[in-house]
Design brief:
The structure holds two protein chains of two kinds.
Chain A lengths: L1 E4 L1 H7 L3 E3 L9 H9 L3 H6 L7 E4 L2 E3 L10 E5 L6
Parallel strand pairs in A: 1-5
Antiparallel strand pairs in A: 1-2, 3-4, 3-5
Chain B lengths: L3 E7 L5 H9 L7 E8 L8 E6 L3 H16 L2 E9 L1 E3 L4 E9 L2 H18 L2 E6 L12 H8 L4
Parallel strand pairs in B: 1-4
Antiparallel strand pairs in B: 2-6, 3-5, 3-7, 4-6
Helix pairs in contact in B: 2-3, 3-4
Classes of the chains: A alpha+beta, B alpha+beta.
């Protein structure tokens, strides 16, 4: 699946997007965040406060308990500040 | 005539008067047009804001809120434009225009759309200061509260 990062999540990880194949026991958005946290220093910094992080699957906002099965694109970002 | 929602996510500026005129062009059933413009403010010596957005999702999310507004209020049409990129103080950031037969629907729908755009549309503002650098703008809890009141 394609994973995208925005704003300070992108800056802390050091990339805007990547293609990932997490292990099969990573089933939800929350579990994906936990798995990503272990992928290196930048990831650990980006996800140090997991409750702050917002997520979207295929351009729709989702909660941490959302299943990632079948997702083409998952995005992680801080709370939005548009408008 | 059916209500039309025009949604644009763009880097370039827009002309508010032209957008209002376009929404009502050729129609005689509109009695009220409300427009809200959000501008870049020079707080604490800010020299510019840079807005990052999530292409594709930004349009989709705004479209979802526009559809909700059309379902909830008797609107003749609406226009939403949100800019991204570098924006300096005094420049436009966002425009919401709503048209209806009567003012109440137009006022309420415009407020609803702005409250939701603030908390749900995937845009992030970064401040640019004269000394260089700059921080990401933090989300405000009163924006969440403003958006939550429409759930009742």
């Amino acid at each position: 699946m394609k994973v995208k990062y925005f704003a300070w999540v992108r800056e802390r990880i050091g990339k805007a997007e990547e293609t990932l194949e997490p292990p099969a026991d990573v089933r939800t958005v929350g579990e994906l965040i936990a798995w990503l946290t272990d992928q290196g220093e930048g990831y650990a910094y980006a996800f140090e406060k997991p409750k702050v992080i917002r997520a979207a699957i295929d351009h729709t906002h989702v909660q941490a308990d959302a299943t990632i099965s079948g997702a083409r694109e998952i995005a992680f970002f801080p709370p939005m500040t548009g408008g | 005539m059916t209500a039309i929602a025009t949604i644009r996510v763009q880097e370039q500026d827009f002309d508010t008067a032209r957008e209002i005129a376009a929404l009502g062009h050729g129609r005689t059933d509109i009695g009220a047009v409300v427009s809200f413009s959000g501008l870049c403010r020079a707080d604490d010596g800010l020299t510019a804001l840079t807005l990052e957005h999530y292409p594709g999702m930004a349009e989709a999310e705004i479209r979802r809120h526009a559809d909700q507004a059309l379902a909830r209020w008797p609107l003749q049409g609406l226009t939403i434009i949100h800019r991204y990129g570098r924006i300096t103080p005094g420049e436009n950031i966002v425009l919401v225009v709503t048209a209806s037969s009567h003012r109440q629907a137009a006022f309420e729908a415009a407020e609803f759309l702005m409250d939701y755009l603030k908390t749900n549309a995937p845009f992030w503002k970064r401040e640019e200061k004269p000394e260089g650098g700059g921080d990401w703008v933090e989300a405000k809890s009163h924006d969440d509260e403003a958006s939550a009141r429409w759930k009742s």
